[in-house]
Amino acid sequence: MSSSFLPFTLLAATVAGCLGLPLAGASSGPTQVFILAGQSNMEGQGVVSMDHAKYYNGGKGNLVWSMANSQSKEHMAHLRDGQGNWVQRKDVTITFKARNKVRTGPLTVGYTGYGESSHIGPELQFGHLMGDHFDQPVLLIKTAWGGKSLQKDFRPPSSGGETGPFYLQMIAEVRTALAKLGDAGFELRGFVWMQGWNDMVSEEGTAEYAGNLENLARDVRREFKTPQLPVVIGELGNGGKAREGSGMDRFRKAQRAGSEKIANARFVPTAHCARPRELSPNMGHGHHWFGNAESYFLVGEALGIGMKELLGR
Hints:
By secondary structure, the protein is an alpha/beta fold. Helix content is 34%, strand content 17%.
């Protein structure tokens, strides 16, 4: 796909405008597009405001609480406006298909598998960083499903065997979103991968992970004819520092090893984003960062910084 900008057709502009997508013929230039893919931690499990004493630990660690009490509270101030409403970035649009329904609109809280505004994922702060980085409009295409492995569900074609059905669905969802922008109205700028739990709990999945990760990057680049597409891989940092020799430790090393084989890629550590279960809303959900909103905010920050390093400006 060409990086040069050509006038957008009236039909394409009408379609994009009706769907709430950034108009790729705007004077600010072609839309800068990022693919955000993975499983449930990319879907987003960070609690926004639920605070039931029994089921959500009285709200500790949710986004509202975190903006007043967490280590990152001052860094989160941009998420709300002066009236206390969740900010909606007009220059950053997100599209996400969940429960067979595509939701598209300005970046804000709530673009997760739950619908409405109950949760956040890494996309929130990642999108803010990309919006601040570019003068052009930004589009995040989020495509994620919980409980899926790279070994089977997302298995890329280059790994041989049966191509994973969710790899195919991921590609289809991205193509559908890109088609609404028009061929000359956008630039595909990066691929962000946040996934791993189902492979981590499988010895076979862990053993194959580095090779499958390398193949995933190769195949995504081939699919969209972008051989140097920047690729960011987020560490499975759940639980913080891993015990030496543990399954989590072995898996993180496999993630790093695979990332290092991919040109123009960054492995982004995220274990530092973990917060104590006692200060989190979902104390029994270690696989989902205990639902801690600050964790998801910090993961998005780390992924965004990694992407900016690859973008080089």
